[in-house]
Amino acid sequence: MCFHQKIDKKPEQIEKKFNAQFKFFQDYKPQKTINGFDFPSTPVIKNTDKFTIEMLQWGLIPNWATADWNRAFTLNARVETLSEKPAFRNITQNRCLVITNGFYEWQHNGKIKTKYEIGFEDELFAFAGIYDEFEGKESYSIVTTEAEGIMREIHNTKLRMPIALKTEEDMESWLTGESAKIRSDFSAINLDPIQLNLF
Q1: What is the pLDDT of residue 25?
Q2: Burial (CB count <10 Å: 0-12, 13-18, 19+), residue 74
Q3: Can you tell me which family this protein belongs to (predicted)?
Q4: Residue 61 CA from chain centroid, whole number
Q5: Which residues pair with 117 in a beta bridge?
Q6: Of 69, 109, 124, 178, which residue is least crowded by CB atoms under 10 Å?
């Protein structure tokens, strides 16, 4: 799954990379660590306007939801069941790019958890996303798939990973409703290196 990400690039860098402009420039604040369970707003490009970057809330609320909807269950959306789950099946055409330059996962070895920063050498890319509108506010889920490559070693319990879109072609394919190329060529930095004690 994907519950922790970062987007700490300057707004000018983001606009240049995605050939789009922020709708409300002042709403964007670079963040090194973003916890999905805080349901923050992060930069997103919707398929209805590929040249505008908007701030959407992470944790999708379906348009038919009640006020007590638990967004923790819709931080992610499994690509395999998008057309089946009630929260997503009627909005599969509502695709978006969730702008990022990295995410965090923990590898489990018994009782030891090791934190990794994962991405493409800190370069900007996007997660495949799906969005909806509830009471005038838009929110999104990050779409995930079965883990491949290094992610099978790091996310070694649930074996999931976000669908990462690195190239313009990858992003266009996702926004236009096609299958996105599954990338597993991530870079990974161990943020909890083991310290050796010498006696």
Answers
A1: 85
A2: buried
A3: Belongs to the SOS response-associated peptidase family.
A4: 16
A5: 104, 189
A6: 109
Beta bridge partners of 102: 6
* 186 vs 157, more confident: 186
Q: Which residues contact 197 (CB under 8 A, 6 or more apart)?
A: none
Strand, coil or helix: what is 141? strand
Tokens in use for 31?
Answer: 């963040």
Q: Which H or E run includes 77?
A: strand 76-78
Distances (CA, A) of 159 to 37, 148, 154, 156, 170: 20, 8, 8, 5, 22
Q: Could you tell me the two tokens for 97?
A: 């790019």
What is the Cα–Cα distance from 178 to 164, expressed in whole angstroms? Answer: 14
Instruction: Give the C-alpha separation, 56 to 132, whole Å.
Output: 10
Token duo for residue 79: 């690509």
Give the count of alpha carbons within 13 A of 120, CB side only: 15
pLDDT category at 194 given cuts 50, 70, 90 is low
Q: What is the pLDDT of residues 114-133, one digit of tens each?
A: 999 999 999 999 999 999 99
Closest-CA residue to 174 (of 186, 187, 165)? 165
Extract the tokens encoding 101.
Answer: 């330059």
Q: Is 13 helix (H, G, I), strand (E, B) or coil?
A: helix
**Domains of the chain and any CATH numbers:** 4-166 (3.90.1680.10)
